Amino acid sequence: FQAEDGIRDKLVTGVQTCALPISDDSFADSDEMESWLKPIQKEWDRGIPWQKFENEPTSRLKKAKDGGKATFLGGKIDLNDGKKYLRLLAVGDTNLFLVRNNENILSFPMKSPEDFDDSPDQISSVEKENLEDNTKKSIFGEIKTATVEVFENDIVVGATDAVSKWYLSSLDSTHISQK
Hints:
Layout: E1 2-6, H1 30-46, H2 58-66, E2 69-80, E3 83-91, E4 95-100, E5 103-108, E6 122-130, E7 135-140, E8 144-150, E9 155-159, H3 161-170, E10 177-178
Parallel strand pairs: 5-10
Antiparallel strand pairs: 1-2, 2-3, 2-6, 3-8, 4-5, 4-9, 6-7
């Protein structure tokens, strides 16, 4: 599965974020992730109707060339020795919750309401100049990973930053407790 949370523009609707392949290598580091992002970025660029920008202000063209940004949450279930494991990969504040027997077993990658801010880590649809080391990159921030064993009747919920922050803030006042 995967979830993205990004800002869309009416001229580039539907191509700001796209399906990202999740393979065993995806759970490695930013270099591995960058390697499978590059073909997707080229596809994103081919999907932009650049001719529509001819009658638009130059600021709209610049915005489109700057690309889209989105947070990302992905996961897959692995079977190992008869057990099921949920392997997760995240960039930014799109969150996953694992609830078991009315107890919040996992909140990933954000653990508390205080973890959210106005500038989450993101993936860009185009390579950008990294001012820290003068290289081009697509991932701005940390790639976080987690693995958790899952059981029958577990509830897995993916949520945007706003819903996640609300959920974490309300854990104390609901019937669901935090482990």
